[in-house]
Design a protein that fits this description.
The complex is a heterodimer of chains A (about 110) and B (about 650). With about 110 residues, chain A is mainly alpha-helical. Chain A has a single domain (about 1-100), classed as Helix Hairpins, CATH 1.10.287.3510. Helix content of chain A is about 75%, strand content about 0%. In chain A, helix 2 (about 10-30) runs antiparallel to helix 3 (about 35-60) and helix 3 runs antiparallel to helix 4. Chain B has about 650 residues and is mainly alpha-helical. In chain B, helix 18 packs parallel to helix 22 (about 510-540). Classes of the chains: A mainly alpha (about 110), B mainly alpha (about 650).
Chain lengths: ~110, ~650
């Protein structure tokens, strides 16, 4: 299995992951729809996961792949809570625009 | 019972009495409070008599436990039972018991009856600690404790602001002395490596062997201890608290401010006699301070109209005599006068209390007079006390005072001369008081006259016992010229044997010379009494109104304006300085720092909260930027 991963040079992985991560960052910063922002956060997390896996394979160290599972678990928990908050706020404001939420300011 | 159990009971039972009365006294009937108050002291007295018998066989140190141990510093909770401490114990509990008994009658109408007895018992407890301690630290506990009790009892009627101020004055003036005492203890430890009497005095023996007198360290130590004694025993310049201390109930004045506490300074110096014998320079200071206090206080006593104030200045003056005795190295004579003074001054105060009781609280002698027939027992006992303090043979004061005067003459005739003049003045003011109070016509109003009565028997019995003691107390020290045996000197021989090799200054008096000195003093005192009778029986209180005082008598009546001088020189500047500190240091500086910190926090909070816009996009942007900056710093600057 490692041989399949290692057929692609590591630089390509890094480039891909960096690109994905930057897309995620830009999505978080520029979009106002809270659902899109969540998706962008997921994109960032998964780009990191991909990089973990690649490095893990290249250095023959399974620790990186185990770490990926942890990241997934945390991401799932985060999404569960985050979406619950989004649903509650949507019920009150009928909006998913993050700028609408500045009303929460004390 | 073994000796340590007796000692423990003797010390602790007054404390138990204090706890019982203080905690539960307000729920107990007055009779029970009085029984607890007097009974505990009576038990302590019985124990002390056993200790006395024991101490005749030789000194004994009882150690209960090791109290403080740090490095080379070690203090045991231990007590020294020797001839000196048991004599003090007998005076404290003996006179103390009589005064407790007297208080049962005197304080009977007071609401805070239980509090009074509680404090009185606490005082006896601390006083016993003071005289029994086998090291300076235990003595210091007692020293501070009696000061506290003195404060509590002077301000016993705390609703009166003047009384509270008198209490505070006594406490603060004592603290000045206490500081000296404490530094003295530190220095003793520094010099001798211990504060136990035994080791300190053993160390001091080395100086005697080497003939090393007036060593500067010893002079400092002795002067510092003497400063403590000045505060506690009311000598110049710290004596002004004692006359003000008369604000307390009269039996308190008798017990604390005449018979026992104020003699603590004498006791500590007698206890440290080895050190003082090493420092003739300090002894000269003591003699000079003592004789000047004796003289000045006596002259002030001439012009006081408050019956208790007269006795207060008289106490200051008599304490001065005791210090003269210590100053000339006659420690035994000082203790002798301490004992006789405890008898007759306690008696005089209690008599004054009986008069005040009869007069319904009036203390001004100008409105008394002619009380002789209404208060016969009080009159006879007070006459005894007055004769004793004036030094008329065979009353107690004669023997002790003339012994001091004779010792003073051996040392320096000037001391003797001033002492003699003081004795004459003493006779004048004491008989002035007696004549104004008991002779002539009654000068009060009709209501007071109808109220006059002899005191109840709980008050007159202590008076009678003390009167007998004032009469016979002097026979303990009959001088050799009368062919008697000086019992007290023999008693003290073991105590003062350790300074027997110290050379004496002056030569012993011949018997004929001693007779002449006695004759002079008795004759002059009799003349003074005659003079006083002419002055104060016939003319009684004429011309004694405050506005009639002129010249020297006005100066005396105002106590040489010493209080005013202290007020101007010390109190006012201190007051001004504290005001200055308050305004500039406290308000501007310290408050400025505290308020400044608060204002800075508040201001920065107001400013920074504007960053919290509530726009999530902005937060995310700030977060991202910051992370990028952190990464850049991490990559380019740190690694």
């Amino acid at each position: 299995m490692n041989s399949i991963i290692t057929t692609i040079p590591i630089n390509s992985y890094i480039l891909l992951c960096t690109t994905l991560f930057c897309i995620g960052v830009m999505g978080v910063l520029l979009r106002r729809n809270v659902i899109i922002i969540f998706m962008s956060v997921e994109l960032m997390l998964n780009s990191v996961n991909l990089l973990f896996t690649a490095f893990s394979a290249y250095s023959s160290n399974p620790a990186g792949q185990i770490f990926v599972f942890f990241v997934m678990v945390v991401a799932a928990a985060e999404i569960a809570i985050g979406l619950a908050i989004v649903v509650m706020i949507h019920r009150n404001t009928k909006s998913v625009d993050v700028n609408e939420w500045s009303k929460l300011k004390g | 019972m073994n000796i340590s159990a007796i000692l423990a009971i003797s010390i602790l039972i007054p404390f138990a009495g204090f706890l019982l009365n203080f905690l539960f006294g307000n729920k107990m009937p007055k009779g029970l409070v009085g029984i607890i108050g007097c009974g505990t002291i009576l038990v302590a007295l019985a124990m002390n008599i056993m200790l006395f018998v024991n101490a005749l066989n030789g000194p004994e140190t009882i150690t209960y436990f090791n109290w403080i141990h740090a490095g080379s510093f070690s203090v045991d909770f231990s007590f020294l039972i020797d001839r000196l401490s048991v004599l003090m114990l007998l005076i404290i509990t003996g006179v103390g018991f009589l005064i407790h008994l007297y208080s049962v009658g005197y304080m009977h109408d007071d609401d805070a009856y239980f509090r009074y007895f509680a404090y009185l018992n606490l005082f006896v407890f601390f006083m016993q600690m003071l005289v029994l301690g086998a090291n300076y630290l235990i003595a210091f506990i007692g020293w501070e404790g009696v000061g506290l009790c003195s404060y509590l009892l002077i301000g016993f009627w705390y609703k009166n602001t003047n009384y509270n101020n008198a209490a505070k004055k006594a406490f603060i003036m004592n603290r000045i002395g206490d500081l000296g005492f404490l530094i003295g203890i530190f220095w003793i430890f520094n010099q001798f490596g211990s504060i136990n009497y035994k080791e300190v005095f053993a160390g001091a023996q080395g100086f005697i062997v080497n003939n090393n007198y007036n060593d500067s360290v010893i002079i400092f130590i002795t002067v510092l201890l003497f400063i403590g004694a000045i505060g506690k025993s009311a000598q110049i310049p710290l004596y002004t608290w004692l006359p003000d201390a008369m604000a307390g109930p009269t039996p308190v004045s008798a017990l604390i401010h005449a018979a026992t506490m104020v003699t603590a300074g004498i006791y500590v110096i007698v206890r440290s006699h080895v050190l003082y014998s090493l420092a003739p320079f300090t002894q000269d200071i003591i003699a000079i301070v003592g004789i000047s206090t004796a003289f000045f206080a006596a002259t002030i006593g001439l012009a006081q109209n408050d019956i208790k104030k007269v006795l207060a200045y008289s106490t200051v003056s008599q304490l001065g005599y005791m210090f003269v005795a210590l100053g000339v190295g006659a420690y035994g004579s000082g203790m002798f006068h301490l004992m006789t003074h405890a008898f007759f001054k306690a008696l005089l105060f209690l008599c004054a209390g009986s008069v005040i009781h009869a007069m319904g609280g009036e203390q001004d002698m100008r409105v008394m007079g002619g009380l002789r027939k209404k208060l016969p027992i009080t009159f006879i006992t007070m006459l005894t006390g007055t004769l004793a303090i004036s030094g008329i043979p065979p009353f107690a004061g004669f023997f002790s005072k003339d012994e001091i005067l004779a010792k003073a003459y051996e040392h320096n005739p000037i001391l003797w001369a001033v002492g003699l003049i003081t004795a004459v003045i003493t006779a004048v003011y004491m008989f002035r008081m007696l004549f104004l109070t008991f002779y002539g016509n009654f000068r009060g109003d009709a209501h007071q006259e109808s109220h006059l009565h002899e005191s109840p028997s709980t008050m007159t019995i202590p008076l009678s016992v003390l009167a007998v003691l004032s009469l016979v107390g002097g026979f303990l020290g009959i001088p050799e010229v009368f062919g008697g045996k000086h019992i007290l000197n023999d008693y003290f021989t073991p105590i003062f044997s350790d300074i027997s090799s110290v050379p004496h200054t002056g030569t012993a008096l011949s018997h004929s010379m001693e007779f002449i000195l006695m004759g002079i003093s008795v004759a002059l005192v009799l003349v003074a009494i005659f003079f006083a009778s002419r002055m104060f029986i016939k003319k009684s209180a004429e011309g004694m109104e405050d506005e009639n005082q002129k010249g020297f008598s006005k100066l005396l009546a105002h106590k040489y304006y010493i209080d005013e001088i202290y007020d101007t020189l010390i109190v006012k500047p201190a007051d001004w300085f504290s005001g200055f500190i308050y305004r500039f240091l406290e308000l501007d500086f310290i408050d400025g720092i505290v308020n400044g910190v608060g204002q800075a926090t508040s201001y920065s909070g107001k400013t920074i909260r504007k960053m919290q816009t509530g726009h999530i996009g902005f937060y995310l942007f700030a977060m991202t930027i910051c992370i990028v900056i952190l990464i850049l710093i991490n990559n380019f600057f740190i690694s």
